[in-house]
């Protein structure tokens, strides 16, 4: 009996040792595979190792560990699990972007708009904090009980990626905060690499025969998205703090106060900085920073102006995805001269033919550019751009490089104007240029392979379904096989798993990863779903507004169907949604009337769970106004029309432009006219400005 036990123990120990060794080996190969670094073992050898580990684990189930490569197909150790699709993190307070300005007049307008919104008389002081706009990657650092708990990238602003392990390797980021910091504090800022660190990094990369980075921003991005934090640790990343996300208590009353607190707690903040109380002073600061730019140690692409008072910031709130209280004043775009080799025509998702210039590669402000957009046919004709021309290329921030103009003096004698094709280069269907359109469009619809491919690319893209691993190249491959023809096919891809695994370049691991990523997206929010459909003129912001308004896909489909009658109240209601004018409304109605689109949507409904988007009241808000439709009319005395509108929307109400039987409240200011009359006729409840404020504040 005793002997028997001893034997078992010995074999268990041996098995444990072998299993450990196998796990280490598999993790190692997984890592190499992830980084696409040589040498890799063959698939067959990898599988043999894995089978051996499975065998051992079958005989000795006690040896199975949670992170064993056998436990999840494609499972890897912690740091790799994060890397393939870094775990997603929902931001409790969205990470927004900034509106951009290039001209001095835009800055004057910005200050005017803020004053008007707040109804500030000219005698009342309005201060702004101005500081450089760092060209890096925004990140949100969450401290709980004074300890750095989580770091996330911006992502689409609502959902980013968990890069905690990588962020913890950055020396200039405090791992813990002093006791006077709030219990919950999210610090937002920019991860970047200084110019000199960037040069040293590239020297090192070159010496090691590794990838050379185009600019500090790319190097920072590449380093932050490393699979293995040990690699990130070797990269010279830095961090500037400039704003807050969620906080459990207020730490200051001004933006300047936040800056000071961040400094006290050990964060670096962007320099130089100033407080200015007029557009002239803001512009002076902009010029100063522009002139000092060559001596500043990091890349910056402009200056940010922020209303200093946090009370004003709160009142100003947000519009779409940017705060009304801040704006970016960018530096002039970088330009360079090069030769335009060839003009190619790309066909987009909605059939638009876009001319693209293939250029002799040129460095424009630190980035190599070899392609630039020529926008559309009208623009090309207007600028008379031809193949073989010398051209000026411009790059402004993240914007796609564009051709500003040609240099006619350098044009060859035999140069000929570019003849825009009258047929779609992809499917041969007539490409038509409507009178009031700037672009030529392919009439092939979904029979045009380019349109079909672009629609699927859009559907899977980051702001839409965000399917990790379903990139452009793979979509082209799968559509080439006809395994994907319509969006719903993506969710039926599993039936081709075996065939996929046999394909060149597709390992079992990548097939499983892709199929898992697809499964993860079977539940989708209504706004993302609407955006993913790729309706002309319906971007993320409009998709959100539609989702918020209609609240469920079924109700949206029903109501939009009614809109086919342009005299219906449904159509007027659609036009009442902010940002939706007659042209957008028509595109929306046309899209949902299309037979093919109806089939695509029905098919998707079978595959997906679409989460209804209902306006979310924040805890301090009353629920009395959620979903109610209100109309403002007449002159308001206590706040501007815009602020009143923003306030109503923040409380979950919909603000409409005209009174109908769907209106819940009409808020009548001084000298209210026809809308008040109509409200009285329809028996809609009428509130005075004071009634409204009582209701909003209760
Ligand atoms: S304040 C919108 N300050 O620029 C929330 N942003 O183009 C307030 N950025 O996503 C942002 N330097 O990540 C602020 N000094 C600075 C900045 C800055 C760079 C980034 C920010 C934002 C992006 C918008």
Structure description:
With 698 residues, this protein is of the alpha+beta class. It folds into five domains: 195 residues, DNA ligase/mRNA capping enzyme (D-amino Acid Aminotransferase, Chain A, domain 1, 2-Layer Sandwich); 115 residues, Beta Barrel (OB fold (Dihydrolipoamide Acetyltransferase, E2P)), CATH 2.40.50; 74 residues, DNA polymerase, domain 1; 87 residues, DNA polymerase, domain 1; 69 residues, 3-Layer(aba) Sandwich (Rossmann fold). It is built from 26 helices and 26 strands. It has a five-stranded mixed beta sheet. It is globular. Bound molecules: 2-(butylsulfanyl)adenosine.
Write the layout of secondary structure elements.
Layout: H1 2-35, H2 43-59, H3 78-85, E1 88-90, E2 99-101, H4 104-118, E3 128-134, E4 137-144, E5 147-153, E6 159-161, H5 164-167, E7 184-192, H6 195-207, H7 216-224, H8 229-233, E8 238-247, H9 255-264, E9 274-276, H10 279-292, E10 300-307, H11 310-316, E11 318-319, E12 322-323, E13 326-330, E14 334-347, E15 353-364, E16 367-373, H12 377-383, E17 390-395, E18 402-406, E19 431-432, E20 441-442, H13 449-460, H14 472-480, H15 487-490, H16 497-502, H17 508-520, E21 523-525, H18 526-532, H19 540-550, H20 553-562, H21 569-576, H22 582-593, H23 595-607, E22 609-611, E23 629-633, H24 641-650, E24 654-655, E25 665-668, H25 674-682, E26 685-688, H26 689-697
Parallel strand pairs: 2-13, 21-22, 23-24, 23-25, 25-26
Antiparallel strand pairs: 1-6, 3-9, 3-10, 4-5, 4-7, 7-8, 10-13, 11-12, 14-15, 14-17, 15-16, 17-18, 19-20
Helix pairs in contact: 1-2, 4-10, 18-19, 19-20
The chain binds 2-(butylsulfanyl)adenosine.
């Amino acid at each position: 009996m005793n002997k028997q036990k001893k034997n078992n123990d010995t074999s268990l120990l041996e098995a444990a040792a072998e299993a450990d060794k196998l796990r280490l080996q598999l993790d190692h190969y997984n890592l190499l595979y992830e980084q696409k670094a040589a040498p890799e073992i063959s698939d067959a050898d990898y599988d043999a190792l894995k089978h051996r580990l499975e065998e051992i684990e079958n005989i000795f189930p006690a040896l199975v560990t949670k992170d064993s490569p056998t436990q999840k197909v494609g499972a890897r150790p912690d740091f790799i699990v994060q890397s393939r699709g870094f775990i997603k993190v929902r931001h409790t307070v969205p990470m927004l972007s900034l509106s951009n300005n290039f001209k001095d007049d835009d800055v004057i307008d910005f200050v005017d708009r803020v004053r008007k919104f707040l109804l500030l008389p000219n005698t009342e002081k309005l201060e702004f904090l101005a500081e450089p706009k760092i060209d890096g990657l925004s990140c949100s650092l969450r401290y709980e009980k004074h300890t750095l708990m989580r770091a996330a990238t911006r992502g689409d602003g609502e959902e980013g990626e968990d890069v905690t392990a990588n962020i913890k390797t950055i020396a200039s980021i405090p791992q813990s905060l002093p006791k006077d910091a709030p219990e919950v504090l999210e610090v937002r800022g920019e991860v970047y690499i200084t110019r000199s660190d960037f040069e040293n990094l590239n020297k090192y990369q070159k010496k090691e025969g590794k990838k050379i980075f185009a600019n500090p921003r790319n190097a920072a991005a590449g380093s932050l998205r490393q699979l293995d934090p040990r690699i990130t640790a070797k990269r010279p990343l830095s961090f500037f703090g400039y704003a807050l996300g969620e906080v459990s208590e207020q730490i200051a009353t001004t933006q300047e106060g936040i800056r000071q607190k961040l400094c006290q707690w050990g964060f670096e903040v962007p320099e130089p900085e100033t407080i200015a109380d007029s557009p002239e002073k803001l512009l002076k600061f902009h010029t100063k920073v522009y002139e000092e730019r060559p001596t500043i140690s990091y890349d910056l692409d402009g200056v940010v102006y922020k209303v200093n008072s946090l009370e004003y910031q709160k009142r100003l709130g947000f519009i779409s995805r940017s705060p009304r209280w801040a704006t970016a004043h960018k530096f002039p775009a970088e330009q360079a001269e090069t030769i335009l080799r060839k003009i190619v025509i790309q066909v987009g998702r909605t059939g638009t033919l876009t001319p693209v210039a293939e250029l002799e590669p040129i460095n424009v402000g630190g980035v190599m550019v070899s392609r630039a957009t020529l926008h559309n046919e009208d623009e090309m004709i207007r600028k008379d751009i031809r193949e073989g021309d010398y051209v000026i290329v411009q790059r402004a921030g993240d914007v796609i490089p564009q051709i500003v103009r040609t240099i006619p003096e350098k044009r060859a004698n035999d140069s000929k104007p570019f003849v825009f094709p009258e047929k779609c280069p992809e499917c041969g269907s007539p490409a038509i240029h409507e009178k009031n359109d700037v672009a030529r469009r392919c009439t092939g619809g979904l029979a045009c392979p380019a349109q079909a491919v672009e629609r699927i690319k859009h559907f899977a893209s980051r702001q839409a379904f965000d399917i990790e691993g379903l990139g452009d190249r793979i979509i082209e491959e799968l559509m080439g096989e006809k395994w994907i023809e319509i969006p719903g096919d993506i969710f039926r891809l599993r039936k081709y798993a075996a065939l996929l695994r046999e394909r060149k370049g597709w390992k079992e691991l990548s097939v499983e990863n892709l199929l898992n990523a697809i499964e993860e997206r079977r539940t989708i929010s209504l706004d993302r779903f609407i955006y993913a459909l790729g309706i002309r003129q319906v971007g993320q912001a409009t998709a959100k507004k539609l989702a918020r308004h209609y609240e469920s896909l079924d109700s949206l489909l029903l109501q939009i169907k009614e809109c086919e009658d342009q005299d219906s109240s449904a159509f007027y209601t659609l036009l009442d949604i902010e940002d939706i004018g007659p042209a957008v409304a028509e595109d929306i109605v046309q899209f949902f009337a299309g037979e093919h689109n109806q089939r695509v949507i029905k098919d998707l409904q079978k595959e997906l769970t679409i989460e209804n988007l209902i306006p979310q009241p924040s805890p301090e808000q009353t629920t009395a106004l959620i979903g109610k439709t209100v109309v403002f009319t007449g002159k308001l005395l206590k706040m501007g029309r815009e602020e009143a509108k923003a306030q109503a929307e923040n409380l979950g109400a919909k603000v409409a432009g005209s009174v109908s039987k769907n209106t819940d409240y009409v808020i009548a200011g001084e000298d209210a006219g026809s809308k008040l009359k109509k409200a009285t006729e329809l028996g809609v409840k009428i509130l005075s400005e004071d009634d409204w404020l009582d209701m909003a504040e209760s």
